[in-house]
Amino acid sequence: MAMKLSITEGGKNLLVAGKGRRVPRTKLRQVPILQVPVSPLLSNFEKWAGKKRKLYFENEEALLSSGIQNYHLDRNVFAQLLASPMRCDRITRLKLPKDMMMQLKLIKLEPSSNTTKYSIELVPQGSHLKSNRSSYVPNKKAFLQKNMEAAMKWIPLPALLSDMRHFSVADVKIDRVNFLSNYEQELRKILDSKMPRLHGNTPKLQNWDILVSCSNSSLNFELSQAKLETCNDSPLSIVKFNLSSVTDKSWTTNYLKKNQNHSLGIVLRFPRDKETIYALRSLICFHST
């Protein structure tokens, strides 16, 4: 059964023309639009991409006020090693912090002591020097022994490419037999020269102090908690240098005995004992596998 619907005239006008009572609009409050500063890293990324920028702070107070914690990296030997300038290793072509590699220098041979055809010698440096041209190779004895035949390629490139070069490659002497042993002797001389400063000093352990000893541990370097010196002391973060990798055990025993300044071994502090610490680290890495 069909139903017939009837629409009044008023309803028809409402549907067709939209006539009827209007609902008043609520007046919206206008909120001011905040102008958020846009980082130049986003707006001009092509000008910044691939470029390093150093954060500059006027002083330590400005650093801390920016919300950056002070990690006391000036006392952290590994942070300082990693912060040294990058140099290209002449064997592997990898770029590494220079203080973690062996530095090579060209030195002029004196005519009075030189009875060979060579006028210049390529020698390793126990302590890095800034003068003259340098090249760098890995500080690993076993690795360098395998690559010793190609030692002529270790000559510093700036010296070879210089327009004022007054020598040829044939003039450079490389003592392949004593090259590595001479380097180790240089490191020992540095360590022996620092003996008077260490002897007789009994320091109290502090955070990031370096404890030099010889243990059966397989780790050459280790960050550990030091034993408490008194019942009131809190645990300290101490870096351990293990001399067990050094092959000359008699030298190691003698060095530790003569320079012991603490019941746990030899205690060094960075940066006060920087040269000694760097020489010890180089000696340990040189003998490690």
From TrEMBL:
It comes from the Eukaryota. This is Required for respiratory growth protein 8, mitochondrial. GO terms for cellular component: mitochondrion. Keywords: Mitochondrion. Its main location: mitochondrion. It is found in: Mitochondrion. Required for respiratory activity and maintenance and expression of the mitochondrial genome. InterPro entries: Rrg8 (IPR031415). Belongs to the RRG8 family. It holds the Pfam family RRG8. The lineage of its organism: Eukaryota, Fungi, Dikarya, Ascomycota, Saccharomycotina.
